[in-house]
From TrEMBL, chain A:
Phylogenetic lineage: Bacteria, Bacillati, Actinomycetota, Actinomycetes, Micrococcales
Transmembrane segments: 20-49, 61-82, 109-135, 147-163, 170-187, 199-220, 323-342, 362-384, 396-413, 419-448, 469-492
Descriptive protein name: DUF112 domain-containing protein
One Pfam family per UniProt: TctA
Ranges for domain DUF112: 20-443
Organism: Agrococcus terreus
TrEMBL record, chain B:
Coiled coil (residue ranges): none
Official protein name in the record: C4-dicarboxylate ABC transporter substrate-binding protein
InterPro entries for this protein: BUG, Bug_dom1
SUPFAM superfamilies: Periplasmic binding protein-like II (SSF53850)
Lineage of the species this protein comes from: Bacteria, Bacillati, Actinomycetota, Actinomycetes, Micrococcales
Segments crossing the lipid bilayer: none
Taxonomic source organism: Agrococcus terreus
Family: Belongs to the UPF0065 (bug) family.
Length: 510, 326
C-alpha cells in the first residue's frame, strides 16, 4: 500500500487554491478545444507550453492533465449534437450518440458520455497507480506481428457488425482503404495516389475525412431535403435530464465496464491511440444489442452505444499516461507534447522516473484524478445547456455546423486544399447516404488500414519475408483462434437466420 | 510568482483564442520591420521538433524584447519541404524566417522537391544534437565492432530501426553499412514515425539495433534497458558517456542541426538585421537556458560558412540517398 500513501501525499501537494484554479482553467480550455473539430488537446498543450515556464511544476502539470482529459470529454460533444466529432477518438461515440440526439435525448447522451469518460479515465488511472509495471510490460511483448494480429482482429470484429449488408459494407471498406493509401509509403518512400502534389505526401488527415463525410455530408444531405422531408423546424426538442435513472444505470454500467476493459490495455501499446478500442467497444455493444433483440440500437440510439466507446476512449488515455510515465513512451500526440513539458522541469519520463522525481510524479497522478472529477462536475450541468443548441431551427443550425466544421479543418494546418478536400469528401458522403452505403466502415478502414499494412510489412521485413513469423508467438495464435471462432459463430448464425427466414416465407406465400 | 502566474493564464487563453487570427496575420503584409514583428514558420505540426525550436526562440525573443511581437506559424508536411516551398515564394518578405534543419535536407532529396536551399537566403545554424546507435540491453553485441561484424555477415537479419526514410537515422544506417562493407541498399531498415516507437521496437526485440536522438534514449540507456554503442558526433561530446563512431574507427558522423533561413529576395540590409537578431538571441541568457534544457550543442554558424555547410550537407545526403536506393 506504499502507492496509496504516496498518492495521498500527492493529493496534499496538489490541492491548493491556486492549483485548483489551474485545474478549472485547464478543464475549460481542454473541453473547448475538444469540442471544436480539428483542434485537439495536443495543440492546446503545444500553445500553452512556453507560457507555463513561469509556473511551478505542480501547477503546470495539473493544467496539462486537465487539458489532456478535457479534450477527451469535449470531443464527443459536437459529435453527439451535430454529428461532427472533434477528434477521431470520438467517432465511435458519434454513431449512437447522434441518433439519441435526433430522438430528443441529447442531454442524456451527453450525460452518459461525460460519466463514461469519467469512469473509464478513473478506473484506468487507479490501475496505473497500482499496476503500472504490469501494464508497461505489455508494451515490451508486442512486436509488429502482434500488432498486425490485433488490427486484423479489430477489422473483423468491427466490420462484421457495423454494416447490415455485406456488399455495401465491403464497398465502404474499399473506399476507406483507398483514402488511407494516399501519401508517401513509410516503408519504401514510394508516392501513392498523390498526383505529385507535395501537400498530399503526408496523406489525407483523418479529421478532414471525418468532418467531410460526417459533418459536411450531413449538412448537404439535410439541405438537399429541407423542403421535402423533415421540414425546417428544429429537432425534437431535447428533454430529460443528463443524469441516468436506475434502469439506465443498469443498462449503462456493464457497458461502461466493458468499454474500460477494452481501453486499458490499448493505452499501453503504441498502435495508434484510442480508435481501435473505441471501435471494438462499439462493435461489441452492437453485437450484444442484436443478441438481446434491442431495437433501439442503430435506430433511436442506445445508451450502451455511447457508454462503452466513451469509457474506452478515456481508459486508453488513462493507461497511456501510465505508459508515458513509466516507459517514456508517447502513445499519442498529446502524450508526446507532455513528454516535452516534463523535460522542461528536469523530469525525464522513463524507467527511472519514480525513483528520481517521485516528488513530482505523485502530485501529477493525483492531479489526474482531480482533473477527471472537475471535468465531470463541469460537464454534467453543461450537458443540458449544450443540448439546447438543438432548439435552433435547422437551417441556422446546419449553417453553423458548416462554418465550425470548415474552421476546424482549416485549423489543422491552415491549408486551403484541406477545405476543398473536405467539401469533395462531403459530396461523396451525400452520394453514400443516397445509396445507403454505411459511413462507419470508411472511417474504420481509413484508420486501421494503414496501421495494419505498416505492421504487416514491418513484421515481414524483420523475418525477411517469412510469413510464419506472423503466427510465431502464443499471443498471435490465441488471437487468430479467437478470430476464427468469431467468424464461425457469425456464419452459423447467419445461415440459421437465413433458413428461418426461408421457412417463414414458405409458410406465408406472397 | 503570483503575477507571473496570472500572466501565464491570460497569455494562454489569449494564445488559444487568437490562434486563427495569428495564422491570418502572418499572411497579411504591412509595414512591419523584423524588430516589430517577426514570424517564424515552423514547417512541422504543433509538438514536432521544429515547432519546439521555434517556440523556444519565440519565448526568448519576446522576453528579452529583441523582437516586439514574435509569432510562430505551423506549415507542416513532407519533411518540411511544404514550408520551404511557401517561404521560397515569398519574394522579399522581410519579417519572416523559416525554421530548418537536417531532416529537411533529407526531405528535399528524397521527395525530389523542386525547391532547395538555393531558393532561400540562409541566415544561421544555431543548435545541434547527435544521434546514437543502441542495441537492447540483453543483446549479444557488446561493442560497435561486434555489431558491425554481425551486420556485415547478415545485413537482412540485422534489422535497424530508426526515424522516417531519408532522415538522419536512415542516412546514418546507410553510412554505417557502407563503412561495414555492406551495400547500403541491403540494409534492413525499419522506419518508425518517432523515437518513442524505436524504443519499443528495441524492448520487444523487433529490431537488432536502433538509431535516434541521444535525448530519446538517454534514460533507457542509463537504466540498462538499452546499450549505447556509438554516437554520431565528429568529436567526443562533454557530458555524454558514449564513444563516437569515429573514435571507434568507423568514419560516420552527422549532426541533427537546426537553423533559420529567410525568403529569397531580401535586401542585404534586411539580411544583416536578421543576422543581428539571431546574434542577440544567441548571446542571451535565455538561449543558454534553452540549450541546457534541451541538451542542444551550441553550433552558431552564419554567412558564407553556413551556405557552404548547406551545400556540403545536400551533396553528402544526395550521395547517401542514392546509395540507399531511394
Amino acid at each position: 500500500m506504499d502507492q496509496l500513501t504516496h498518492l495521498l501525499e500527492g493529493f496534499s501537494v496538489a490541492l491548493t487554491p491556486s492549483n485548483l484554479l489551474f485545474l478549472v482553467i485547464g478543464a475549460v480550455l481542454g473541453t473547448a478545444v475538444g469540442v471544436l473539430p480539428g483542434l485537439g488537446s495536443a495543440m492546446a498543450v503545444a500553445l500553452l507550453l512556453p507560457v507555463t515556464f513561469s509556473l511551478d511544476p505542480t501547477g503546470a502539470f495539473i493544467m496539462f492533465a486537465s487539458i489532456y482529459f478535457g479534450g477527451l470529454f469535449g470531443d464527443s460533444t459536437a459529435g453527439i449534437l451535430l454529428n461532427t466529432p472533434g477528434n477521431s477518438s470520438a467517432i465511435a461515440t458519434t454513431f449512437e450518440g447522434h441518433r439519441m440526439a435526433k430522438d430528443g435525448r441529447a442531454a442524456k447522451a451527453l450525460g452518459t458520455s461525460a460519466i463514461g469518460a469519467f469512469l473509464g479515465g478513473t478506473i484506468a488511472c487507479v490501475l496505473v497507480v497500482f499496476f503500472s509495471p504490469a501494464i508497461v510490460r505489455l508494451a515490451t511483448v508486442m512486436g509488429p506481428a502482434e500488432y498486425f494480429a490485433l488490427t486484423v482482429f479489430a477489422f473483423v470484429a468491427i466490420a462484421a457488425v457495423v454494416a447490415d449488408s455485406i456488399v455495401r459494407g465491403l464497398v465502404s471498406l474499399g473506399l476507406g482503404f483507398a483514402v488511407g493509401m494516399v501519401g508517401i509509403d513509410a516503408m519504401s518512400g514510394a508516392e501513392r495516389f498523390t498526383g505529385g502534389t507535395p501537400v498530399l505526401f503526408d496523406g489525407i488527415s483523418i479529421i478532414v475525412v471525418t468532418v467531410g463525410l460526417l459533418a459536411i455530408g450531413e449538412v448537404l444531405h439535410v439541405a438537399g431535403r429541407i423542403r421535402t422531408a423533415g421540414g425546417n423546424g428544429p429537432f425534437l426538442s431535447p428533454k430529460g435530464s443528463p443524469l441516468l435513472n436506475r434502469r439506465e444505470w443498469r443498462q449503462a454500467l456493464p457497458a461502461f465496464l466493458r468499454g474500460t476493459a477494452f481501453g486499458v490495455p490499448f493505452g499501453a501499446i503504441p498502435v495508434g491511440g484510442s480508435e481501435v478500442p473505441t471501435f471494438l467497444a462499439y462493435g461489441t455493444e452492437k453485437r450484444l444489442a442484436r443478441r438481446r433483440g434491442d431495437a433501439d440500437f442503430g435506430t433511436r440510439g442506445a445508451i450502451q452505444g455511447v457508454a462503452a466507446p466513451e469509457a474506452a476512449g478515456n481508459a486508453t488515455a488513462g493507461s497511456a499516461m501510465g505508459a508515458l510515465l513509466a516507459l517514456g513512451l508517447p502513445t499519442s500526440a498529446t502524450a508526446a507534447m507532455m513528454i516535452a513539458a516534463f523535460q522542461q522541469y528536469g523530469m525525464q519520463p522513463g524507467p527511472l522516473l519514480f525513483e528520481r522525481s517521485g516528488d513530482l510524479v505523485w502530485p501529477l497522478l493525483a492531479s489526474l484524478f482531480l482533473g477527471l472529477g472537475i471535468l465531470l462536475i463541469i460537464n454534467l450541468p453543461f450537458a443540458a445547456l449544450w443540448a439546447r443548441l438543438l432548439v435552433i431551427p435547422r437551417h441556422y443550425l446546419y449553417a453553423g455546423i458548416a462554418v465550425v466544421a470548415m474552421l476546424g479543418v482549416y485549423a489543422i494546418s491552415s491549408r486551403v486544399l484541406d477545405l476543398w478536400m473536405a467539401l469533395a469528401i462531403g459530396v461523396v458522403g451525400v452520394i453514400m447516404r443516397h445509396f445507403s452505403l454505411p459511413i462507419a466502415p470508411v472511417l474504420i478502414a481509413a484508420i486501421l488500414g494503414p496501421m495494419a499494412e505498416t505492421q504487416l510489412r514491418r513484421a515481414l521485413a524483420v523475418s525477411e519475408g517469412d510469413p510464419t513469423a506472423l503466427v510465431a508467438s502464443p499471443f498471435t495464435i490465441v488471437l487468430y483462434l479467437l478470430l476464427a471462432a468469431t467468424v464461425a459463430v457469425s456464419v452459423v448464425q447467419h445461415l440459421r437466420h437465413a433458413r428461418a427466414e426461408r421457412a417463414t416465407k414458405a409458410r406465408v406465400p406472397a | 510568482m503570483r503575477l507571473s502566474a496570472q500572466g501565464a493564464i491570460v497569455g494562454g487563453l489569449a494564445s488559444v483564442l487568437l490562434l486563427v487570427a495569428a495564422t491570418h496575420a502572418s499572411a497579411s503584409g504591412g509595414e512591419a520591420t523584423p524588430r516589430t514583428r517577426l514570424t517564424m514558420v515552423a514547417p512541422a505540426a504543433p509538438g514536432g521538433g521544429w515547432d519546439g525550436f521555434a517556440r523556444e526562440a519565440q519565448q526568448v525573443l519576446r522576453t528579452d524584447g529583441t523582437v516586439a511581437a514574435p509569432q510562430v506559424v505551423n506549415v507542416p508536411g513532407a519533411s518540411g519541404t511544404i514550408g520551404l516551398g511557401q517561404v521560397a515564394q515569398m519574394g522579399d518578405r522581410h519579417d519572416l524566417m523559416l525554421v530548418t534543419g537536417g531532416v529537411m535536407v533529407g526531405g528535399i532529396v528524397v521527395n525530389g522537391s523542386s525547391v532547395g536551399f538555393d531558393d532561400v537566403t540562409p541566415i544561421a545554424r544555431l543548435a545541434d544534437d547527435y544521434n546514437v546507435l543502441v542495441v537492447p540491453g540483453d543483446s549479444p553485441h557488446e561493442t560497435l565492432d561486434e555489431f558491425v561484424e554481425a551486420l556485415a555477415a547478415d545485413p537482412g537479419g540485422t534489422a535497424i530501426a530508426g526515424g522516417s526514410l531519408g532522415g538522419i537515422d536512415h542516412l546514418l544506417a546507410g553510412m554505417l553499412a557502407g563503412e561495414s562493407g555492406v551495400d547500403p541498399a541491403d540494409v534492413n531498415y525499419l522506419a518508425y514515425p518517432g523515437g518513442g516507437e524505436v524504443v519499443t521496437s528495441m524492448l520487444s526485440h523487433t529490431a537488432e539495433a536502433g538509431l535516434s536522438g541521444y535525448n530519446e534514449f538517454r534514460d533507457q540507456i542509463e537504466s540498462g534497458n538499452l546499450r549505447a554503442l556509438a554516437l554520431s558526433a565528429p568529436e567526443p561530446v562533454e557530458g555524454i558517456d558514449v564513444p563516437t563512431f569515429v573514435e571507434q574507427g568507423v568514419d560516420v558522423s552527422m549532426a541533427n542541426w537546426r537553423g533559420l533561413v529567410a525568403p529569397p529576395g531580401i535586401s542585404p540590409e534586411v539580411e544583416a538585421e536578421l543576422q543581428a537578431i539571431v546574434r542577440e538571441l544567441h548571446a542571451s541568457e535565455g538561449w543558454r537556458e534553452v540549450l541546457a534544457r534541451n541538451d542542444w550543442e551550441d553550433s552558431l554558424m552564419m554567412g558564407e560558412e553556413f551556405e557552404r555547410f548547406l551545400e556540403d550537407e545536400t551533396a553528402r545526403t544526395a550521395q547517401v540517398v542514392a546509395e540507399l536506393g531511394l
